[in-house]
């Protein structure tokens, strides 16, 4: 049986786990692209425990979000940052209580994954999916005791574009007897993107159902936006109605409308701002000067209020950018200058999976299980 215990005085990980492994797998030899991973063995132990490959959203967000903020075995202690490495605590609801989970930073440029050649960062949805499939094959070959484990591919948000593609790729490989035969059982997705126009248009009935927009605005949008591209409407009345809609939608916390609205603590492209954002950046800049890594953060996120659900995201910057944390994780020197939770959109990325619906249909038609939840 695998056990996890906390040790607040030892390493910057503030965690000792006999079953936590962090390493790299090369997925592009020509460009020297290596994907960083965190593997946590199931606390229940045994090869028969489900094996889950977990991806996070983004498209260039670190999988640390899944590990420390969602389904992993530990989480940040939410307390005011005091210049030392943020502490971790056990997550009593970790999925690793019942499953082995392989968390992967993907694509190159996300988290601690990197490429030695600039060309290695020029990937897209299809090439990223193929790299992750290659990653999984190589990892299983290096850890053959998990070959018979029931395999599931999972992720949330933008990973919804990648997971069904990988599941189909594995299914196709198994059909033709490609070795190693992976024991795929299904896939699961939380609040996934699909690439369909419905991704955008479905926001309207959702917002109406939760009382964010009025019956009148809802009917106006339905009346003027039939057949329109909700991102680029050509109908003037539709565009005006959608403008009002997005203005109202901006007043709620998009990840969860019941949360208090506060700034995102991220340097990513979707970071929200309010009147406190400038002050928050100034304060963080001052705090960053005292970080034990000996250098100031180049891309400091906004510091949200302590009672904001995103405060733990803010703490993650100080944890992941401390040299002692990097040493403990085995991060290769000179590969990632500064860890950010989500890239700011400056990394090339081709959106070449127009829709994932066909992959969902193909995989489920072959009898594999699927769980899609919000």
TrEMBL record:
InterPro entries: AB_hydrolase_fold, Peptidase_S10. Keywords: Signal. SUPFAM superfamilies: alpha/beta-Hydrolases. Residues 1-27 form the signal peptide. One of its GO terms (biological process) is secondary metabolic process. GO terms for molecular function: acyltransferase activity, transferring groups other than amino-acyl groups; serine-type carboxypeptidase activity. The keyword Signal applies. It comes from the Eukaryota. Belongs to the peptidase S10 family. PANTHER family: SERINE CARBOXYPEPTIDASE-LIKE 19 (PTHR11802:SF371), SERINE PROTEASE FAMILY S10 SERINE CARBOXYPEPTIDASE (PTHR11802). This is Serine carboxypeptidase-like 19. It comes from Aegilops tauschii subsp. strangulata. The lineage of its organism: Eukaryota, Viridiplantae, Streptophyta, Embryophyta, Tracheophyta.
